[in-house]
Amino acid sequence: MIQDDREKIFGKIRSGLRGYQKFTFDRSSKSPLKTTLAKNFGTQFEKFKKELAILGGEAVVLNGHSSISQFLLSHIQGSAFIYDETESQFEAVISKIKKSREVKFSSDFENNYDKREVAIFDAAISTCATCSAETGTIVIENQMRLPAALATKLFIIAEPGDLIPSLDELFTDEFRNFKGSNLFLITGPSRTADIEKELVTGVHGPKEVYVIFFQP
Amino acid sequence: MRIFLFVPCFIDQLFPNVAVSTLKVLRHLGCDVVFPANQTCCGQPAYNSGYADEARLMAMHEVNAFLKFNSAVDNKTIEFDLKNDYVVGPSGSCVAMIRNFYPQLLSDDSRFNEISQKFSSRVFEFTEFIDKVIGIEKFSGKLNALVSYHDSCHALRELGIKQEPRDILKRINGLRLVELPYNEVCCGFGGTFSVKFPEISTAMANEKLKNFEETRADILVSSDTSCLMHLQGRARRSGMKHRFAHIAEIMAESIS
Amino acid sequence: MELESKHFKSLYKEQIKNQQLRSNLSKATLQAVDKRAESFEEVDFSFLRDEAKKIKQESITHLNEFLSQFEDMAQKNGCKIFYAQTPEKANAYILDAALKHGVRTIVKSKSMVTEEMELVPFLTRNGIDTVETDLGEYIVQLANEKPSHITTPAIHKSRKEIAELFHEKIGSDLNTDPKFLTTEARRVLREKFLSADMGISGANFLIAETGDVVIVENEGNARLSTSAVKVHVVVTGIEKVIPQFSDLRIFMRLLARSSTGQKLTSYVSLIRGPRAKEEKDGPQEVHIVLLDNGRSGLLGTEYQDVLHCIRCGACLNVCPVYRNIGGHAYGSVYPGPIGSLVTPLYYGEKNAPDLPFASSLCGNCTEVCPVGIDIHHHLLALRQEITSSKKSSLEKFLFRNYRKTMLRPGRYKMMGKAARLLSKTGLLRILMKSWTNERDLPEFPSISFRELFKSGRLD
Ligand code: SF4
Question: CATH number of the domain at C45-297, please?
Answer without folding.
Answer: 3.40.50.10420
